Amino acid sequence: MSATIIALRTATPAYRYEQAALAQMMNRLLGFDADEAQRLHALYRASGIQTRYSVLPDYGQGEPLLFPKTEDMEPVPDTVDRNRFYQHAAVELALKAAKALPDPALKCISHLITVSCTGLSAPGPDIALIHGLNLDSGVHRLAINFMGCYAALTALKQAAAICRADPKAKILVVAVELCSLHFQKNKDEDALMANALFGDGAAALVVENQEDSQGLELHDFFCDLVPEGASDMTWMPGRQGFDMRLSAYVPELLEGGMATLLKRMEQHFPVGEKPYLAIHPGGKRILQVLEQLMCRDRDDFSLSYEVLKEYGNMSSPTVLFVLERLWKKLKAEQAAPGQILSFAFGPGLTIEAALLRWKG
């Protein structure tokens, strides 16, 4: 018996934006001159992103729901207003992902783990999900809040630990992020980078102990910190939404930390085996650095590039979007059982890793 992901689904909100159109909007809102506009469009083109999703129509898809109906979007909403919007919109998107799971997967849920870093409330989305999914009110709940992009792997680690402690456990994990609520209207370099990268999304999965059924077995977990990068990736509540710092040094800092962590993990891979990869696409440059470090072809990272292109970085659910695509690909190809190596990164500077096994 081993803890296994038996079902996994993802969801996006209604509003889909072209990256080029978002760049034009930013250029207009910030009143850039010709040189600034050229640099901004270059940043958006270099991101590797083509489309992103938002719970808000405010960025050019219809009548605004959060920002004022003014040409310059002023006055921008404060953190209280943004968080108030999160409280209902996050639940709606989380329910969309969870209700996409096959009906049998949602039967007899014993534990619920929720993951989010783009809003906070008590009672939180966990309680709303219990009501919205008609789960038993005695379901054990765990909320993993404000950890950032790597938190979905932390949730999988907790689900595996619960399965080890309780062989009959059946855990629903739901990760939901509404990054677009925290749009920052300023010329700060970090704000420009965050505005160019992040979108909204949700993912839901179920973990239980299984013997031989098809799915993704949760085999082992690893983590490490790159303390010299603690100030290079941060996510803090501000007066007008949450503020991100994401320096250009993050890929190089991760390279050093990843090299150390990969060396610790070597013993878990048979000589010559190349595991399948499910890497969180934190950014195009991060993926390029990992290609070189891991001596792997770009094709090995193709699913991460696809998710980045179609959705941007959605924080915690993003790596689960990659895992879902890998699952579908392996199933369609009737691939033989094999190991899957998954990484995600976040503030700290944190590296979280999961070793899974495709059961075939």
Explain what the structure shows.
The protein is of the alpha+beta class. It folds into two domains: 2-210, Thiolase/Chalcone synthase (Peroxisomal Thiolase, Chain A, domain 1, 3-Layer(aba) Sandwich); 216-358, Thiolase/Chalcone synthase (Peroxisomal Thiolase, Chain A, domain 1, 3-Layer(aba) Sandwich). Helix content is 36%, strand content 26%. The protein is built from ten helices and 13 strands. The strands form three sheets. A nine-stranded mixed sheet has the order 5-4-6-7-1-8-13-12-11, with helices on both faces. Strands 2-3 form a two-stranded antiparallel ribbon. A hairpin with a 3-residue loop joins strand 12 (338-346) and strand 13. Helix 1 runs antiparallel to helix 2 (34-46) and helix 7 (250-265) runs parallel beside helix 8. The longest helix is centred in the N-terminal third of the chain and has 21 residues, at 79-99.
Short structural description:
With 360 residues, the protein is an alpha+beta fold. 36% of the residues lie in helices and 26% in strands.
| Helix share, percent | 25-40%
CATH architectural type of the largest domain: 3-Layer(aba) Sandwich
Number of domains: 2
Shape: globular
How confident overall, as mean pLDDT?
Answer: 94
Low-confidence stretches: none
In spatial order, strands of the major sheet run 5-4-6-7-1-8-13-12-11
CATH topology of the largest domain: Peroxisomal Thiolase, Chain A, domain 1
Q: Could you describe the largest sheet, including whether it forms a barrel? A: 9 strands, mixed
